[in-house]
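Hey team,

Sharing the SDR family oxidoreductase run so nobody has to redo it. Sequence (261 residues) first:
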Amino acid sequence: MNLIPGLDFTGQMVMVTGASRGIGHSVARNFALHGADLNILSQGEEIHQVARDLAHETGRSVTGWTCDITDGTRVNEVFSQIPSLDVFVANAGLEDVTPISDQSDEAEARFRRVIDINVNGTYLTTRAAVPLMGHSGRIIITASIWGTTAEPDLSAYISSKHANIGFMRVMAKELGPLGIRVNAVCPGWVLTGPALNTLREMAQDRGVSEEVIEDEISASQSLPGVQLADDVSLTYLYLASPLAANITGQKLNADRGAVQG
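Structure output:
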């Protein structure tokens, strides 16, 4: 196994939520490639096949769990079966377009579901993870560059990511005396399924092609090109590693310079 110096997680147990695809899957895979054993969680049954595939590829122990993270009872059932955790990655989230001009019941339901998953789900899973951690535990929350900025028509998603950053900062204060570090990764545009859906809807609303939107995203960054999940995932390993031993309560942008500061 070719390890990046400082990123050896051999003997450590890592849980990643929302790990069936996208950023969560890439984060889980890279932790396993660098020696960690995994618990991975998703709402869909496909997580069990994902776990088998990752175990086969990496040679590590990988256990998959199905769980709606907005269901506190089910969250507690899952976490009660895990003896201990060294690293918890609260990555599961939902992105949806919620323009304020949409007065439908469906729009309200979408708004509530995004907040429920991204805010309440992050709280419930983090709360369940903390008792499983020792003095050197690490928690990493997937926020977004939109956690400090804004775009039209994404009120639920952007509000939830602002909340994620605030929650991370409070947890860093509360858990610091226990030796647990808490940080957030703020990805920019990453070509995952949910992001592609948003990009498609933005293109349709403006009557332009998806390629036009991608070009605009690239032009807004200091470094051109739109990221893939693998471009972001090593940021999580850095924050969980001894290389970041003095970093807590921070948001780290992984956005090719789209937002500075």
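Strands lie at 13-17, 37-42, 62-66, 85-90, 133-142, 181-187, 251-254.

Ping me if you want the raw files.
A.
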